[in-house]
């Protein structure tokens, strides 16, 4: 079982950058594929990015390709999401989880707000 705590969100102007962190506990983290997901008001939660257990394979939603980078440091039990060239449509609460996500592991997420 993995417990996750997201951080790093905030308010940023369009074109700016943020780096999100996801701190994990549990031995399963180092051998689990991980992902970032987001949910905007009035919309369903959607997939953003994923990374294999080794960090060697990544996958991104078309909407963020070329702008976001997912990475992980298994020694620190942490996964990151570097977000560049942010757009107002990126505004959402961002969550990390295993990929595919486990319903029992959703945390509180971290709010990202991009102003125009």
Short description:
The protein has 116 residues and is mainly beta.
- Count of strand segments: 10
Share of helix, binned: under 10%
Give the SSE string.
Answer: EEEEEEEEEE
Strand content: over 45%
Q: Output the radius of gyration.
A: 13 Å
Overall body shape:
globular
Describe the structure.
The structure is a single chain. By secondary structure, the protein is mostly beta strands. The chain is built from no helices and ten strands. It has a six-stranded mixed beta sheet, with no helix packed on it.
Helix-strand blueprint:
Elements: E1 3-7, E2 10-13, E3 18-25, E4 34-39, E5 46-51, E6 58-60, E7 68-73, E8 78-83, E9 92-98, E10 110-115
Parallel strand pairs: 2-10
Antiparallel strand pairs: 1-3, 3-8, 4-5, 4-9, 5-6, 7-8, 9-10
Which features does this protein show?
globular, 116 residues, four-stranded antiparallel β-sheet, six-stranded mixed β-sheet, mainly beta, 10 strands
